[in-house]
Structure formats: structure tokens, C-alpha cells
Design goal:
The chain is mainly alpha-helical and about 325 residues long. The chain is about 50% helix and about 5% strand. It contains 14 helices and two strands; from the N terminus they run ααααααααββαααααα. The protein has a two-stranded antiparallel sheet. α7 (about 155-170) packs antiparallel against α9 and α7 crosses α11 (about 265-280). It is globular, with a radius of gyration of 25 Å. About 30% of the residues are buried.
Length: about 325
């Protein structure tokens, strides 16, 4: 396990939980960081509520290293709802952020109740999470996707074209794309992808992907490359960074006039999923496996209907062309 500096600020009981989630459950560094941040914010709130901190101590500096089992045992469901209200009113957390905090607390208290048997009653058992607003994912149309690919040019055009092609055809996450190794591209036209929580999946490469990869391989640097395993290489001969890939995507989005409309690398993932589902007729369960989603509910966001589909549905109504008689 990597040594995370922020974990050193945690009391032993929280360290134990974070270690479990990282080593046993395979959660990413980013996720572990979020868990700790949520738990730290919560126990700072509890210490203030219990009068354990003087009023002149800034909230962001309240230590939690001294949080012990007795304080944890004192937490009630009412405390947690007060904390959620504090997160909304004092910290301006939206529904999605407060829902994540709810999940972090449920995970921690569930662990020390069920796994460690340190407390008898889980105060989060009846906790209801704020409902997250379901917004339609932003995506490019088929025509815009083709225009984006056709916009690629310059010294690194083979690399950039390959990156955009994999985003738009395979629905990769940014972290998955930059983590691709040369050896992940297999001779049977499949690709090994390491997703969230170090979960591995196999993605099948279509003709467009195979062609783009082969074109890039012909010009991919070899001499002086610092990470010889990396598939995508930066101009400095390192593994390409997420920031560089984002810059590449923004560059071509700007070129076709979409830079100010909220598009990003993740929107290209949305585009791949939407095009496969709406125009390719891919079954939602198959799409779930392609995208590497753990739950089908996450994938169902792509079952949204386009305005064109709704217009076509209205036109298909057998009463669509029945008009009032003039008699």
C-alpha cells in the first residue's frame, strides 16, 4: 500500500478503515482521499458540537487525531442529520456532495459495526441520502464526433487521432486512457483496461480503433522513452499525463467551436455510450460491461431520449394526422 500523508492525520480507527478500503476493497487513491476528507469534516463538526474545541480555533485546523471510540459511540442519527444541514447551509454542499458524505459515513460506521464489532448499533442504518438531481449527460452528436476527428492535425496527429478514437469508440475514462500500456493492445483486437478500483476489463477494438492504433504505432517514439511500457507518449518522452490529454481534447473541441459548451474528456465517454445505445442499438447490459460500471443503475443514465426520438415517436402516433373536420 502506498503511504498517504493525509492518513497520518487520522486516528487509528479511521486509519484502519481507510487501509481496509484501499487494500481489501481496492478503492483508488482519490476515493480514499475523499473518504478521509468526509470523515474529517464530520468529526470536526462533532467535536465543535460537543464543545471539545474552543471558539477561536479555525474549523479547517481542528485536529481529529484524538477521536476515540467513546466519541464515535456517542454519535446519533440526529447528529448526522445536523451535520448534513451544516454541510448544506454553512458549507454550501450540493445534493451530490452531501450524498457522497452520507455514503462515506455509512461505509465507516458499517465497517466498525459489522466488520470490527466495535459498536453495537450503526447510527447510519436509517440514514436517508439527499436525492441527486439526474441531469442528462452532455454528448456530441454523430456529426460533431466526425467533425472532431476530422479536425486532427499537426506533428502528433496520429497520437491525437488515436486518443480521440479510443474515447469515442470505447468510452474510456481519462485515467484509463493515460494508464494504457503498449502490452494492453492484444493481437486478437482486444484491449486490456484497468478501471476504477483496479478492476480489469477487456474491450473489443473495432476497425476504426485498430486502424488508429496501427497508424500511431508506426510513429510512436522508441528512443529515449522514459516509460517504455506506456502506450501514449508525451513530447517529453514520458507517459502522457491527464492534463496533456485534456489539453489535446480541448484544442480540437475549440477548433470545431465547442470549447465553451461544457464538453470535456468525460463528455467523449458520454458520447461513445450514447451513440452505442441510441444509434447502435447496444443492449444496456452490454453497455454496462463496456463502460466498466459496477451497477446497471449507473449505465441507465444513457437511456435518455433525444429530441429527435421524441419527435419521431409523436409522428408515429396513429392519430398524428387526424384533423378536425371542417363540416
Amino acid at each position: 500500500m502506498k503511504n498517504f500523508d493525509f492518513i497520518e492525520q487520522a486516528p487509528p480507527i479511521i486509519k484502519d478503515y481507510l487501509t481496509y478500503m484501499q487494500t481489501v476493497k481496492g478503492k483508488s487513491i482519490k476515493t480514499i482521499d475523499e473518504y478521509f476528507s468526509d470523515l474529517r469534516t464530520f468529526f470536526r463538526f462533532i467535536k465543535v458540537k460537543r464543545g471539545l474545541i474552543s471558539d477561536d480555533v479555525p474549523y479547517s485546523t481542528i485536529p481529529i487525531e484524538d477521536v476515540d471510540l467513546n466519541l464515535i459511540k456517542s454519535v446519533t442519527l440526529a447528529d448526522i442529520y445536523e451535520f448534513m444541514n451544516f454541510a448544506l447551509r454553512e458549507r454550501g454542499n450540493n445534493n451530490a456532495t452531501r450524498a457522497r458524505k452520507s455514503s462515506s459515513l455509512r461505509g465507516f460506521f458499517g465497517y466498525i459495526t459489522v466488520k470490527k464489532h466495535l459498536i453495537d448499533t450503526d447510527p447510519t442504518k436509517e440514514l436517508e441520502s439527499p436525492k441527486k438531481k439526474k441531469s442528462m449527460p452532455k454528448y456530441l452528436t454523430l456529426e460533431q464526433s466526425i467533425e472532431l476527428l476530422n479536425a486532427v492535425d499537426g506533428k502528433y496527429k496520429e497520437r491525437d487521432y488515436c486518443i480521440l478514437t479510443l474515447f469515442l469508440n470505447c468510452g474510456l475514462r481519462l485515467s484509463e486512457l493515460v494508464g494504457l500500456n503498449f502490452s494492453d493492445i492484444r493481437s486478437d483486437n482486444t484491449m486490456r483496461v484497468l478501471g476504477k478500483g483496479n478492476k480489469e476489463r477487456i474491450v473489443y477494438l473495432n476497425e476504426a480503433c485498430v486502424s488508429a492504433i496501427n497508424d500511431y504505432k508506426k510513429v510512436r517514439p522508441v528512443d529515449g522513452v522514459k516509460d517504455k511500457n506506456a502506450l501514449f507518449i508525451s513530447r517529453n518522452l514520458n507517459r502522457i499525463s491527464p492534463k496533456t490529454v485534456q489539453a489535446i481534447v480541448y484544442k480540437y473541441l475549440q477548433k470545431i467551436g465547442l470549447d465553451s459548451q461544457g464538453y470535456s474528456c468525460h463528455k467523449l465517454r458520454h458520447t461513445a455510450a450514447t451513440l452505442m445505445y441510441q444509434q447502435g442499438g447496444v443492449d444496456i447490459r452490454v453497455l454496462k460491461e463496456i463502460l466498466g460500471h459496477e451497477n446497471l443503475g449507473t449505465t441507465e443514465i444513457y437511456t435518455h431520449l433525444s429530441n429527435k426520438q421524441m419527435e419521431q415517436a409523436a409522428e408515429k402516433n396513429p392519430l398524428a394526422h387526424i384533423k378536425k373536420s371542417t363540416k
